[in-house]
Amino acid sequence: MKVEDEIIRKRQRERARIMALLLGAFVILLFFITIAKTGMNW
Amino acid sequence: MPTLELTNPAALPADWRDFLALTKPRVMSLVVFSGLCGLLVAPVQLPIVLGFTAILCIALGAGACGALNQWYEVEVDAKMRRTAKRPLPAGRMDRQSALQFGVGLGAFSVLLMGLATNWLAALLLAASILFYVFIYTIWLKPRTAQNIVIGGAAGAFPPLIGWVAATGHVASLPLLLFAIIFLWTPPHFWALSLFVRSDYAAAGIPMLPVVAGFESTRRQILLYTFPMAASAVAPWLLGLTGVVYGVSAAILSFVFVVLAARVAANRATDPAGMDPEKHLFAYSVFYLFALFTVLVADRFLPW
User: Does B225 touch chain A if contact means CB atoms closer than 8 Å?
Assistant: First the structure.
């Protein structure tokens, strides 16, 4: 039972990390989309 | 990580790698490539970030199709050697998670495409996802041997979507690119289904070799390569591309026809004697990559 709990926590941690990375990337992407759509020339 | 035999692996939260596997990354690569080519040959240059987002949306849409396909076909996948180790039939993920992931990914890709590029591209992306899931996976695939013929339209959308993302409208060149992939799909999949026929038969999928037999399938493979080759050289004949593309398309298509003729002449019923089918399948993947690469190169060459 303890080992199963450990696996569950490990998977939850990994999924949370991936989700955080994807959300961070999405925010950055939205920022650059906004810049491109508003026609600012960087 | 400790290894142990879990009594019910599906009760665990699925591993993120299994969500990635649901998207069929290998299939996605061809979709992304053809979408990128559609975008690059368009006469309008999108800002890099918008072009990247358009391709990302096409990739996510294809991933959604893969996830929803696996959600629906879990029982069939469990019966085939080729697919039995996928996350759902192997019991590493519950069906509800796959459904939620697929629907969420599809909706996200369509919305992002609409916001970043234009809503016609988003509409086409939505249509391709819905076509793949409802028309191909749910309706045609389990019912008719022509599943690949009509269902092939779903895989033909990416270059059209890429073009429309850049230009905002449909034109004759992307429609021809659509036609090339549409007509390429039957010989490509039938070549594969000839040497994995027993898998499809065991799973009850009415692929053409299962329903119509080897000879009829081989004849139809050859017959489909002629309109495919014609549509491949059509952009040049219509003056939409240059001579580099035209000559390359003619040579690549000629080799395709020769390999298809070898398949048509083969009489083997055992996969061990199906080298012509295996060669055609491998070449068909190379053919599409090469054809679209030359198309893009032709667009940027100075002559």
Answer: no
- Chain A residue with CA closest to B116: the answer is A33
- Dist CA B266 CA B278 (whole Å): 12
Task: Identify whether residues B162 and B20 lie together within a single domain.
Answer: yes
Question: Which residues does chain A have within 8 Å of residue B50's beta carbon, measured at their own beta carbons?
Answer: 33, 36-37
Q: Give the mutation candidate from B4, B7, B16 for the A interface (greatest A CB count, under 10 A).
A: B16
Residue B149 belongs to a domain = yes
Helices (runs of H) and strands (runs of E) counted in chain B: 13, 0
| pLDDT of residue B4 exceeding 50 | no
The tally of CA atoms less than 13 A away on the side-chain side of residue B292 is 29
Residue B115 lies in a domain: yes
Mind listing the pLDDT tens digit of every residue in chain A (42 residues)? 678 888 889 889 999 999 999 999 999 999 999 999 988 554
**B46: three-class secondary structure by DSSP:** coil
> Residue A14 and residue B16: Cβ atoms within 8 Å?
yes
Chain-chain contact of A4 with B6 (C-beta, under 8 angstroms): yes
- Distance between CA B151 and CA B147 in Å, rounded? 6
CB contacts, 8 Å: A36 with chain B: 47, 49-50
Q: Provide the ipTM.
A: 0.85
The closest CB to that of B49, out of A12, A14, A33, belongs to A33
Taking only the tens place, the pLDDT of each residue in B114-153 is: 999 999 999 999 999 999 999 999 999 888 888 888 888 9
Domain stop point among B122, B149, B168: B168
| Claim to verify: residue B140 and residue B35 sit in the same structural domain | yes
Q: Residue B133 carries which DSSP code?
A: I
Domains contained in chain B, number: 2
Model pLDDT, residue B200: 80
Q: What is the CATH number of the domain that holds B36?
A: 1.10.357.140
CA distance B64 to B133: 9
Of B2, B16, B49, the CB nearest to A3: B2
- Containing domain of residue B202, as a range? 171-303
* Same domain (yes/no): B218, B102: no
Identify whether residues B24 and B160 lie together within a single domain.
yes
pTM of the model: 0.89
